[in-house]
Amino acid sequence: MSGLAERNGGRAGLAILALILLLGLGLRVNEAWEGRDPVFDAAAYATIAANLDRGGGFTLGAGATQPASNYSPGLPLLAAGIYKLSGGVHERTARLALALLGTLAVAFTYLIGRRLSGPIAGLIGAAAIAIYPALIEYQGMLMSEPLAASLLSGAALAMLSASDGGQAWRWLLAGGLFGGLALVRPEYLGVALLVSLVVLAKNWQDGWRKALVPSLLVLVGVAVIVAPWTVRNAIALDRFVPVSTGGGQVLFAGTYLPSDGDPERVGAEVVERHPQLFGPNAVEQLRLEQILARLAADRYPDTETDKALSKMSKEQLWDDVSEEPLEYAGFVTRKVTRIWSHGPRDVMRQPGWELLHWALVAFGLVGLAVLAIQRRWEALLLATIFVAITAISALLVASPRRVLVMMPLVAALAGVGAVACRDSLARRWQR
Question: pTM for the complete prediction?
């Protein structure tokens, strides 16, 4: 017990950690119990999960505005599994289970911060994630971000632990968590591949054969989780789809220059520029996927919607880069600013919570700089994740929800940065 206390800042540190974890759990369980009006994606996840439980398959049913395959399968499959165990479609039960999983992000943030810079850094990061409003609000509906935040922080922690040496299963575990993350947020499949290359680079000095083993173990862990769904897609969709479809849609929306980087403006801008395809109230009556489907059908009438949009996206991306490089550079800059400048949900626009977000990002950058000097492997791993997701957002739809998944890692780094600033001020004061 004394050893446990010593590793966690003494009895006081353990007590504070327990209070933070209880606070994070309580806030999430309360939100899950009360529930919240679902956003469109949450309603879609709930519908798919209910259909799975009732034997209807992975579908949104008649009248859906887009195919269910456009949605990532991880959350609906998990919710459907909870429904099977609870004996029916009990969404509150699923939300409560997700609240428990979401609380793991608080614990993982602490453990990462403690590993990087001691217990105080961990406590600072954990406290921030325990009360971060956007993560808490999404626990009141079936949304993937809190679950993805726990999976990503858990995967990063497993990767850091595996790098200490030891059994191969640690690398497999890290890969498995990245695989689970890819089923919840498909863009992280590419991130997992990049992380495996970082692992290869880290161990290269030991010879390429020894370096290749942990890198391959990470990929095997990913494949074990993702491959069954990929095989299912090959049978159900009759084509190779690693996780989900809809890539053409998000690529088109993400590269549509007239939107000025705001995904909520894409539909209105398309309607305005193609009035011959839409009625006078199309923006109010149609969702974005319906607007883009109509545009794709007009441009490539004999091509499947997603493939047509993918082709159109590549065409407009090439035109923008080659003909208007400065304007496109500004477009990308505004998108990156959009995703990092504030969290999702209206609550994050309130001054106090907006200040918390800015403080986490600012101190997180300081923490990353400190690690780049003191612990280069850890800095490289975390920077790879941040840069990869930022680049994906710059190319695809620029939603702050992508950054929300990374906030536990940002908060852990913010703890590192805050401790470094404290130590620097203390040294100056002693002079």
Answer: 0.94
